[in-house]
Amino acid sequence: MTKVLTVIGTRPQFIKAAAVSRVIKEQTNIKEVLIHTGQHYDDVMSEIFFREMDIPKPDYHFSINTSTHATMTAQMLEGIEQAVIKEKPDIVLVYGDTNSTLAGALAASKLHVPVAHIEAGLRSFYMDMPEEVNRILTDRISNKLFCPTSAAMHNLEVEGLNTPDRVVVNTGDVMYDAALYYAKLAEERSHILHTLNLKPDSYLLATVHRAENTDNKERLASIVAAINTLSKQHKIILPLHPRTKKMLEQFHLELECTVIEPVGYFDMISLIKNCHMVLTDSGGLQKESYFFHKYCITLRDQTEWVELTQAGCSKIAGAEKEHILQAVSDFYTKPFHNGSVFYGDGNASRIICQYLSSTS
Ligand code: UD1
Ligand code: UDP
């Protein structure tokens, strides 16, 4: 029996873990213990995903102070260390690139417990992003590195991390597993189109939450100006992340579009499937746009999901108003072409489970 201690704490990690935990539950040779670090804590950023997506109730759920990166990470480290000492897992499983990811990997590594990293190898090559630091450090101390794409595998090769003492494998992307599985349930359970009185293909979907956009007044103001200009012509639905809400207030900026509370995953899938186009700085949403055959305008200066830009399915527009408007205009009437398979076949979680339970 392999005992896996999973560490999650943010919205995208709940969604990824839902896909993997569902497969773990079917295995007779893996037992999962779950830690929720408490990094995200509002009902609409946390509990809603556990309820809707049938994620097991966490065995440990910390309450942390999210004020600064170091304080937050330090508080998580303390809690995770205690749990690792008590549970004596065979392996600690972490997801993505958040502070919860790094805390989980670091706590385990210091106790000589092997670390498995889902979404290994992604790089933006922009060290000012907290996520870039988290993912580089996590990959360096991980023993099993599960890459979602061939670009991620390539990055690990270049960094010299694909060594015989590590498992480095392209498993496909667990977010694709999640999208395929939960899209069926979303059809039955989401009523968001009805609630917001939306017709399919009649609106653009936007999200913004990355620190490099929200915490920079000039960039945030420029994105807001682009959205406000676009909303004179198009209906725009924008589920507002709490970080962005706080920063809009601080900078006295106002969005003139349909701003809604963050939504659960079923509603989000329904909003993506039925929109005309996506504008986002979210990592997850860039791919989900592709999964559901929508163009994505990426409100960042670089992306980890390079295959999408290379294939012409998404466009890097940064935060410049004129670039964003131009990108919308370029994509607006173009039919979506979905030729290649970049993210596996929907079985990433199963492949990961096989590697989790094997000793090599
Ligand atoms: C974090 C991740 C980011 C990821 C995002 C997913 C890090 C460094 N960043 O960013 O990579 O894309 O999660 O959404 O780990 N807040 C609330 N309620 C909540 C959660 C947050 O009010 O439930 C507010 C808090 O004031 C907090 C701020 O949002 O200070 C930012 O939260 P934090 O977890 O620090 O970073 P995110 O921007 O959510
Ligand atoms: N998401 C959601 N509700 C929302 C906004 C996003 O369920 O109101 C989902 C989205 O579909 C994707 C994930 O959350 O699966 C992405 O999370 P986020 O954008 O917060 O983080 P990132 O992927 O950028 O790390």
Characteristics:
Rossmann fold, binds uridine-diphosphate-N-acetylglucosamine, 46% helix, 6-stranded parallel sheet, 16% strand, alpha/beta, 360 residues, binds uridine-5'-diphosphate, 2 domains
Structural features, described:
This protein is of the alpha/beta class and about 350 residues long. It has 2 domains: about 1-175 and about 345-355, Glycogen Phosphorylase B (Rossmann fold, 3-Layer(aba) Sandwich), CATH 3.40.50.2000; about 190-330, Glycogen Phosphorylase B (Rossmann fold, 3-Layer(aba) Sandwich). It has 16 helices and 13 strands. The strands form 2 sheets. A 7-stranded parallel β-sheet has the order 3-2-1-4-5-6-7, sandwiched between helices. β5, α5 (about 130-140) and β6 (about 145) form a beta-alpha-beta unit. α1 (about 10-25) packs across α16 (about 350-355), α4 (about 100-110) runs parallel beside α5 (about 130-140) and α10 packs parallel to α15. The protein is globular and about 55 Å long. The two termini are about 15 Å apart. The mean pLDDT is about 95. Bound molecules: uridine-diphosphate-N-acetylglucosamine and uridine-5'-diphosphate. The site of uridine-diphosphate-N-acetylglucosamine (UD1) has 18 residues, from α1, α5 and α11.
